[in-house]
UniProtKB/TrEMBL annotation:
Pfam families, sorted: LZ3wCH, Mnd1
Domain called Leucine zipper with capping helix: residue spans: 223-268
Biological source species: Darwinula stevensoni
This protein's name: Meiotic nuclear division protein 1 homolog
Main localization of the protein described in the UniProt heading: nucleus
Length: 270
């Protein structure tokens, strides 16, 4: 026959508390080591650990009187201890619920924020291109075509090739003209717009000195830039003249006289 299984720690604790509350007296450890085995079946060797665990949990009181330590536990003590534990648990539960509510509020705010962002994104998609995107596409269109256009022509061409709605073409073109990114001029009764590609200035040094026939010639970077700009404008003028001749069958001499273009106008040497 197998040996009878001993008491668990929790059973010993319960029996020890019951013993003390039944006796309602004060005991030294050595007294409990004799009394507990006899009345509650708690082996003497475990009494010290059981008592200490109960003291640590506040279920048993202890105090040193003289040179001796006494232990006791009255029924009201146990009730008060349980009440305090219940209060602690209740307070902890309240704290947890409060934190849970705060987290829920934060989550709700995050959901609202995300929903707002999604809505704004959808609305921005419906709105179409921004003004800056329209400007970039319009300049690209004109530089790709390298031709001269009236407003009504751009209002047909821009939606088809660059996705710019016709109603916004006028404002886009005007903003580009104001910023100097698109050229415009009135020829007869019509206004034409154009923008030819401009090429970057080569990386000339700030100054170049050339010794020729004992004369030092100074070329500044700014002068070089100005010359190239003047030559680009001459390109534009010649392109306009060529376009006018072909489109309106106007003699070049008439054009020169009409717009004050010198007959001997030519490119500047770079």
């Amino acid at each position: 026959m197998s040996r009878k299984k001993g008491l668990s720690l929790e059973e010993k604790r319960e029996r020890m508390v019951t013993l003390l509350q039944e006796k309602q007296d004060f005991f030294q450890l050595k007294e409990l080591e004799k009394l507990a085995p006899k009345e509650k079946g708690i082996i003497a060797q475990s009494v010290k650990d059981v008592i200490q665990s109960l003291v640590d949990d506040g279920l048993v009181e202890s105090d040193k009187i003289g040179t001796s330590v006494y232990f006791w536990s009255f029924p009201t003590k146990a009730a008060n201890t349980k009440k305090r534990k219940l209060e602690d648990v209740t307070n902890s539960l309240a704290d947890i619920q409060q934190k849970r509510q705060k987290l829920k509020d934060v989550l709700d705010q995050a959901k609202v924020h995300v929903a707002s962002l999604v809505l704004k994104r959808r609305m921005s998609r419906k709105k179409g291109l921004s003004l800056e995107e329209k400007r970039e596409r319009m300049v690209t269109l004109l530089q790709e075509k390298q031709d001269f256009f009236q407003l009504k022509e751009l209002e047909k061409l821009a939606p088809k090739e660059k996705g710019i709605i016709a109603q916004s073409v006028k404002d886009v073109i005007q903003s580009l003209v104001d910023d100097g990114l698109v050229e415009s001029d009135k020829i007869g009764t019509s206004v034409y717009f154009w923008s030819f590609p401009t090429y970057g200035v080569p990386p000339f040094p700030l100054s170049i000195f050339v010794l020729a026939d004992d004369v030092i010639i100074f070329y500044s970077w700014e002068v070089q830039v100005a010359r190239e700009a003047a030559n680009r404008w001459l390109d534009n003028i010649l392109s306009v003249k060529s376009w006018c001749r072909n489109r309106f069958n106007i003699d070049e001499a008439v054009l020169n006289k009409q717009f004050g273009i010198p007959e001997d106008m030519d490119y500047l040497d770079t």
